[in-house]
Prior knowledge:
Helix content: 10-25%
Number of helices: 7
Strand content: 25-35%
Bound molecules: NADPH dihydro-nicotinamide-adenine-dinucleotide phosphate
Number of domains: 2
Radius of gyration: 21 Å
Number of strands: 19
CATH topology of the largest domain: FAD/NAD(P)-binding domain
Amino acid sequence: xxxxxxxxxxxxxxxxxxAMYSARFNLNVLVFAEEPGGLITTTHLVENYPGIKSIGxxxxxxxxxxxxxxxxxxxxxxxxxxVEKFENEDGVMRFRVMKGDEEFIAKTVVLATGTKHKHLGVxxxxxxxxxxxxxxxxxxxxxxxxxxxxxxxxxxxxxIDAKILRQFVxxxxxxxxxxxxxxxxxxxxKLEDDDKVEIMYETEVESIQGDGEKVTHLILKDGSEMKxxxxxxxxxxxxxxxxxxxxxxxxxxRGEVVVTREARTNIPGFYAAGDVTDAExxxxxxxxxxxxxxxxxxxxxxxxxxx
Length: 307
Ligand code: NDP
């Protein structure tokens, strides 16, 4: 049987921070990193992490993992299928984490599973996924050199995706359903000043059309047609809360795991950190801090039973 002090589920900024701090507390830590480096690795440049003026998202995710590994945390690059709390034969509460039929036992668990992209839910979106419909401008932008692309969404992700795409494509349209964007003013200004980018407010996609092989045009809600080669969907995320629901952690109406400022959930020994939690502002710096809180709580719980 493998007994760990802390099992961290998630290998993004938050999970790696929890792992790095736990390892510095001399705890025996295992991280399950289904998506090594996490969502930040799909970001082009991060320019708002205090103390680091500018860093590539991929490099940042990798560096967080390396830091945890060099401090002593072990990583497995796979998903977790289930997690449960149980009382062992000595009457001690433990967590059982399953990967397929492999069992891992832990004294504490830190859930840092983050989020997954929201889908528009319009006709053509699934049919043309990877044939012009994408959720990652950084990953797929270069496939559309010299073409026309659009970003659907009005937040920071949409603004940053448009900035990435303008390097490759002829023209980028940003389709915003409201009459304003809610992106950071600095990000919005860059788009407004860019001739290659056109923001279209109060514009919604009715369906994505194609020739069977690739996207060719959009039908908008007002009935008009728009020639289009690529559609980048950037309308936010849903949290990956399946394991939290499974173990009975409280979630809010958005499905986010309810935590105290110290990363405690309603289940003693089970902590949550990063974008999966109900923290209002989903930023790398916040996720890193929540990961640190979770490791401190895990340490206290293991050493003196305090939660
Ligand atoms: P947000 O939730 O901030 O924005 C989603 C956008 O998509 C909104 O404009 C929303 O419109 C729109 N939207 C939602 N559903 C639909 C739909 N079905 N059809 C059309 N439009 C839709 O998500 P983001 O991914 O942009 O950002 C999430 C968080 O991550 C934010 O806190 C953001 O600040 C942060 N972030 C920060 C970055 C940075 O470097 N500073 C980079 C990227 C993200 P509406 O306004 O009408 O609801």
